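tokens incoming
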């Protein structure tokens, strides 16, 4: 295969795989699906009501051309290289349930979340009386469907909550690590030589293959090397701006705290 034909072949494969995106990367859409994930998190970490962990990861790309209908400097992240900032939600089995690879590297995680279709869905379900939540780091706003750590915990149940929260939320870091160990083109040492939109297509494609492998229980990665593929030093954990749902988020987190008293 000639060098010029490789990008064309990759785009063709991505196009075919992406036809299955809404099936292979899907948010739970029924109570029984939510309950299965909740049970998985509860069995592993002892925390109730959790349907996923959320975070973002950066995928390096070459500097976009100003003629590619994007603003190049928006893709320069705070580490000083061009990237797309990929938001993802995974379940207890490291399966990506939601993925958004449309934002440039300069975008803050909380800014991506503000307009996320997943947030809109959870808001709508919360209004209708459904109680479930994601786990996110302190870079996200506390909301009744997104629980964050407690700043400066003092009471025993607050310390316990943070400890369990960290362990359970870390599953998204692990999912990113597994994804990047399987598909080295996405790792922090590599640079995708594609436009932002084509790089996003490749991220979606790799994530679909990752989900298929996870669903079939195929362990094709080195457990020891997983940590090396996700740059945890990248995260900006400065507190996000509060939203109008902050008070309801406080109450939701308090309910979660109260459910942990059995472990004290």
């Amino acid at each position: 295969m000639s060098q010029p034909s490789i990008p064309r072949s990759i785009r063709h494969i991505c196009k075919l795989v992406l036809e299955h995106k809404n099936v292979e990367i899907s948010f739970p859409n029924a109570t029984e699906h939510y309950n299965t994930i909740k049970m998985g998190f509860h069995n592993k970490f002892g925390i109730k009501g959790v349907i996923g962990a959320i975070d973002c990861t950066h995928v390096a790309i070459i500097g976009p051309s100003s003629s590619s209908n994007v603003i190049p400097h928006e893709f320069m992240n705070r580490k000083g290289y061009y990237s797309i900032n990929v938001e993802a939600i995974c379940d207890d089995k490291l399966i990506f349930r939601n993925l958004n690879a449309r934002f440039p590297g300069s975008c803050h995680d909380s800014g991506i979340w503000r307009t996320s279709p997943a947030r809109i869905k959870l808001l709508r379900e919360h209004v209708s009386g459904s109680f479930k939540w994601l786990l996110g780091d302190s870079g996200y706003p506390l909301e009744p469907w997104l629980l964050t750590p407690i700043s400066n915990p003092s009471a025993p149940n607050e310390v316990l909550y943070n400890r369990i929260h960290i362990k359970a939320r870390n599953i998204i870091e692990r999912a990113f690590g597994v994804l990047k160990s399987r598909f080295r083109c996405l790792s922090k040492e590599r640079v995708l030589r594609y436009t932002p939109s084509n790089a996003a297509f490749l991220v979606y494609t790799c994530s679909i293959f990752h989900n298929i492998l996870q669903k079939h229980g195929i362990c094709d990665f080195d457990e020891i090397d997983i940590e090396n593929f996700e740059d945890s030093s990248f995260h900006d954990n400065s507190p996000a701006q509060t939203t109008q749902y902050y008070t309801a988020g406080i109450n939701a987190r308090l309910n979660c705290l109260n459910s942990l008293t059995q472990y004290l």
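note: Residues 5-263 form one domain.
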